[in-house]
Write a structure and sequence with these properties.
Blueprint: H1 10-25, H2 30-37, H3 39-45, H4 48-59, H5 63-76
Length: 82
Amino acid sequence: MNAVSAPIDPATTLRVLKEMIDHLNNFDPSAGECLEINRAVFHSLFSAATDAAFAQQVGAFAFGDALTTLQSAASAKGILLA
């Protein structure tokens, strides 16, 4: 049986994305922790392939690449990040 996830609150999504962007912009290793704690938000944002790529980028401290991936996915979902 497949579990159906509740939709992620848009305000929560925006808060998590801004937090991750701060980690990535500051080359903060806490980005990995942010990713794990907020896994559902990132699953809702990315395709399966992009989700795996993003996790690999964060895990490898390729924060510039991860930031580009995150911003592209947010833009594709119509989420504006200032």
